[in-house]
């Protein structure tokens, strides 16, 4: 790990202030979502610096037609909306057409061209989508005819516009057989759509601000979420990669950790951190 500090008034410090404000918005949105779900707490996805909800913790077992248990954190069960989603497409020749999302279908905000979607699914998917049926011989040796079918798909779908869509369905084993058409499923889908729409802040954005040398990354290396906090007039950063921004001053781990403890103590006096 590498540890740095910079004044909050530098150009870099101002960029970090904007980044922190964006992170705060994402965190508050996740908190509002968890509260709306009636959850006691939430688990954030590890791939983001801030924002998003992976699992929810409830004070007591929730309605299992709306929520499904996904895993445990120690002795605490964690839940997610009890529905599934799959990506699909709506193709059209009308460049003025805009589909409307429904309770179980969520469309993208703009259409894309065939070249932008054709590699998102295997060729078998698109053959079925375009109603191209191979002969029995071709089915058993599809690889040999792949180039021919790719050309057929380009000819048939190449001039069309595609709307990406998420289609939501009920659980494979609902607690209640009527759940597939019940209000519980509608609620589960609504909660999942809200979860997907939560704002998130990517770690990559912070790496870019700090001019991190990501070329040092090793595929087998465990990834850590960077630390970033403002204490008095400095931002303090702990990051996995060496950074080259000229407004950063490299510091020892001991100084970083000491300042973090002082920062936590300052929050205690403000009543924001709780007992430590």
General description of the model:
The structure is a single chain. The chain is an alpha+beta fold and about 280 residues long. It is about 35% helix and about 25% strand. The protein has helices at about 10-35, 115, 125-130, 135-140, 145-155, 185-195, 205-210, 255-270; strands spanning about 1-5, 40-45, 50, 55, 65-75, 75-80, 85-90, 105, 110-115, 160-170, 200, 225-230, 235-240, 250. The chain starts with a strand and ends in a 6-residue tail after the last helix. The mean pLDDT is about 90.
Write the layout of secondary structure elements.
Blueprint: E1 2-7, H1 11-36, E2 41-43, E3 48-51, E4 55-57, E5 67-73, E6 76-81, E7 84-92, E8 105-107, E9 112-113, H2 114-117, H3 123-129, H4 136-140, H5 146-157, E10 161-169, H6 183-196, E11 200-202, H7 203-210, E12 227-231, E13 234-239, E14 249-250, H8 253-270
Antiparallel strand pairs: 1-13, 1-14, 2-4, 3-11, 5-6, 7-10, 8-10, 9-10, 12-13
Helix pairs in contact: 1-7
């Amino acid at each position: 790990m590498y540890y740095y500090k910079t004044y909050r008034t530098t150009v870099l410090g101002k960029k970090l202030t904007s980044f922190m404000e964006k992170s705060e918005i994402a965190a508050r949105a996740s908190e509002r979502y968890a509260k709306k779900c009636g959850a006691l707490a939430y688990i954030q996805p590890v791939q983001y610096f801030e924002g998003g909800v992976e699992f929810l913790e409830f004070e007591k077992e929730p309605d299992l037609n709306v929520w499904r248990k996904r895993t445990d954190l120690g002795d605490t069960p964690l839940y997610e909306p009890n529905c599934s989603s799959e990506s699909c497409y709506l193709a059209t020749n009308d460049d003025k057409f805009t589909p409307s999302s429904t309770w179980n279908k969520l469309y993208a905000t703009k259409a894309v061209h065939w070249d932008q979607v054709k590699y998102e699914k295997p060729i078998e998917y698109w053959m079925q989508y375009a109603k191209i049926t191979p002969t029995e011989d071709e089915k058993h040796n599809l690889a040999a005819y792949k180039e021919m079918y790719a050309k057929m798909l380009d000819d048939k779908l190449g001039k069309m516009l595609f709307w990406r869509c998420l289609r939501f369905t009920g659980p494979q084993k609902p607690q209640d057989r009527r759940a597939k058409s019940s209000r519980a499923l509608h609620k589960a889908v609504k909660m999942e759509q809200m979860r997907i729409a939560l704002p998130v802040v990517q770690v990559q954005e912070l790496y870019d601000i700090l001019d991190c040398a990501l070329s040092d990354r090793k595929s087998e290396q465990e990834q850590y979420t960077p630390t970033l906090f403002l204490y008095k007039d400095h931002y303090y950063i702990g990051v996995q990669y060496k950074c080259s921004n000229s407004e950063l001053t490299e510091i020892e781990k001991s100084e970083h950790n000491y300042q973090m403890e002082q920062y936590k103590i300052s929050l205690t006096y403000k009543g924001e951190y709780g007992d430590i």
